Amino acid sequence: MSMDNTLPADVDVGEEDERSRLDQVRPIPRISVQAFCESESIERPIEKAGADRRMAKAHLKVQMGGIRAAVEHFQSAPTPNLVILESRLPPSELLHELERLAEVCDPGSKVVIIGHYNDVALYRDLIHRGISEYLVAPISIGDVMTVIGDLFVAEGNEPLGRSIAFVGAKGGVGSSTIAHNVAWSISNLFASDVVLADLDLAFGTANINFDQDPAQGIAEALFSADRIDDVYLDRLLAQCAEHLSLLAAPSMLDRTYDFEGDAFSALIETAQRGAPAVVLDVPHVWNEWTRNVLAQVDRVVITATPDLANLRNTKNLVDTLKKLRPNDGPPSLILNQLAIPKRPEISADEFCEPLGLEPIGEIAFDPHLFGNAANSGRMLAETDSKHPTVAVLSTIAHVLTGRGEAKKAKRPGLLDRFRRKA
Q: Which of 75, 87, 260, 352 maximizes the CB count within 10 A of its CB?
């Protein structure tokens, strides 16, 4: 399920491979982990793993001192679900220290050893003694996340679908329209099931854009979070196309919607179990739950128009997401509503340069196409399948599903403007 992330020029292949490896790790369940290290080179990747979005439910604590510190600590404290230990000791001394640890360690706790001896006989002996895994230093965050995932994610579980969140850098930039059309494109191009969730409960437009009027939708799922499962979610989904299902927002303002930070977590996880792709239309607001959604999804897509306010907001989002998602690639960028006649705008190159990003799609201003599609409750490809914007949306769908790379966009010129006017 790995994705092709759009990376800055200074990101090397090793970092890209590491991110691709992390993409294979499923979210870690609610477990406790304690690590006892002897060196900073081992401490750092373990701490980075603890900050990863896939470890959001787990509780990880890192201490120094190795096995001896662990023995002393667990003499008066219960052992967690997983103990990670670094040891520089030679094999014979390492086995002796582990015997002391066994006296204070609960039988149900799993133990991972990070050693400095690449010894097959030692590995076999440790596994025979009940050690869950033996890693040879140096290690990476990918090693840490993979071994935890292998130990605590149920074997045989199907891979989770990819969650892709679309958010606008500013109100009115067309993020929702693009999210809906990209979801439709993914389902249509690849005959792959897609769930589109409209997270703007007050003013969502997905039901209008797909000409749907479902009696139930995302509000029922959120207010019944304690009973959400695959069967219940299926009852709430409206079928928009053969492979596209919609979790629509209400069409009324009969209540206000103030949510806790993790209000959408169970819903998104349930949707991911049932579809290879889950597209989230995130409203342009900034609060605890939107922050958490953007921090936890597999991919974030920012839609912006080429003006100064959008540039500032996009830069703030990129910088914030980098802190929230330290082990993921940067968000993807779509530039929309380009080349509006008589409107001064920042060029695409000037807009992207301070962000360190290349857009995965550039969409020219065309009120006729977008207006016709919106007013008829149809997607852009259904309105005019040969329009250049449809080809851009197809490219975006390929990039976000890992089936292609972003292409350098052809900038709209004077001739294009005359054609659109005609």
A: 87
